[in-house]
Amino acid sequence: MTIMQKVYWIIASLGNLLAISFMFNNTGMLPSLVLMFTLFYTAIGYFDIFHSPHTLNRLYPVVAYLRYFLESYRVEIQQYFIANDTEETPFNREQRSLVYQRAKNVRDTIAFGTQRDLLEDNYLSLWQSLHPKEILETAKRVQIGGPNCLKPYQASYFNISAMSFGSLSANAIESLNLGALKAGCYHNTGEGGVSPYHLKHRGDIVWQLGSGLFGCRDVEGNFNPDAFKKMATKPQVKMIEIKLSQGAKPGHGGVLPKAKITDEIAAIRHIPKDRDCVSPAINPECTTPKKLLNFVETLRELSEGKPIGFKLCIGNPVEFLGLCKAMIETGITPDFITVDGAEGGTGAAPVEFSNRLGMMCLEAVYFVHNALIGAGLRGKIKIIASGKTASSFDLLAKIAVGADTVNAARTMMMSLGCVQSRHCNTNMCPTGIATQDPARSKAIDVNAKSERVKNYHKNTLNSFFELVGSMGLDSPEKLQPHMLKRRTPYGLLMSVGSLIEPLQTNDLINENKIEGPWNEWWRMAQTEDFYSEDLYILSPAELSRTHRKD
């Protein structure tokens, strides 16, 4: 027997006898309480030893529940009492505090120097100029809209990423959209469709169409052009984004059980209530590169010329180059491409998909940027980066490697009050943000929280423009990948992108000899099917880097 089993039998036998004797020989409440305790302990322990399915309960009756209790608060204990300011993931205390401070419009400076290890491998930094500049007012917005777009959109450098109603509460959606209106940025709806809470405050919207085609489908799940046109032509809908995959779970679909489909969700998503709602892993309208581009053209016509783009998490590079080839062959180009990093995001996902699939945001944006340049398409398409953006440096890094604008999701939730409890998939969010429990969500004050969204956006952008100016630049458009410095394992600095030679315009089309895998990837890329075998064996770039001889 374990020591706790021995303790149990002592309490169950001798303890109960002593408690009974104590009660008969004394008056007052204490003897009764002691007896109640020993009887309760005995009953619980008996169940644990003889009937519990858990080994711990059988070996450590009663006290095993103490472990379960402490385990249920492990995240909070780790966050508040154990972790230091720079070691938590996905967002450490320093990052979260910065978001909270900027959202509350309070002091966001630190004292007594950095807590970061500046010699840490892969640590990113910048070189400042002795001649800082002010950012031009004309350089503070980004126009999204290619040559075939009739209604281009002037976007902020910093925007609210995709989070659906259903994943977030109604009050959270309202707060984000009202915040977007006040801040002058757009708010992506997520694949759950455009809800009344997205429309209520008239903030700019990017309508995301996922594989479920929510909001523009018939009862069988097929695309409904009339339903799409009715929503897409609303003035508040500024752009439309086709979701191919997302960083949190690339290659994974989803199922909304019919038990969770309320009348409201059924009406918003255009789905029946009598069956599970299945979101397939691949968008049914975009099963090949050419079909995707034809769908882009269809949506552009139905929306009366609004910017149309698609979102994906980069996996096999050959498949994206197949898309580039299809754009060249068809002459159809999206107005923007949203590149979602594998380090994202808000969506609940299987551990293996979240941890092991996809390219991270910086490397994916750098790849897409160069691929579009090499295919001669970069001037027609804007790149939107999405993936773990808390500070103005995070924003700057993504734009430096090739993005035109940046989306943020989790830090926008933090501006509402999210405490990173990581209960988003349980409906038990302690701040009422990622839940459909009305008792929890009603705690969100829409007007107050929208002010925090606006403050976080404004203060982060102001810091971003100041950071760009400190480098001697008067426009974020002048940022280049080599301006980012990365610390090597040898303690030296190197420019980001220096190990992988950037492409020149039309390099891929002209079949110029390019160092690395580009030529082989381009040869393997096809336009009739997304899938391409991953045959190229990658080797460390630092072992093979040479300079192009022009």
Automatic annotation (TrEMBL):
Keyword Transmembrane applies: yes
Q: Which keywords does the record carry?
A: Membrane, Transmembrane, Transmembrane helix
A Pfam family that this protein carries is Glu_synthase
Q: Which residues cross the membrane?
A: 7-24
| Domain called Glutamate synthase: residue spans | 155-473
> Is Nucleus there in the keyword field?
no
Q: Could you say which protein family the record assigns here?
A: Belongs to the glutamate synthase family.
What's this protein's name? FMN-binding glutamate synthase family protein
Which organism is this entry from? Shewanella schlegeliana
Its lineage opens with: Bacteria, Pseudomonadati, Pseudomonadota, Gammaproteobacteria, Alteromonadales
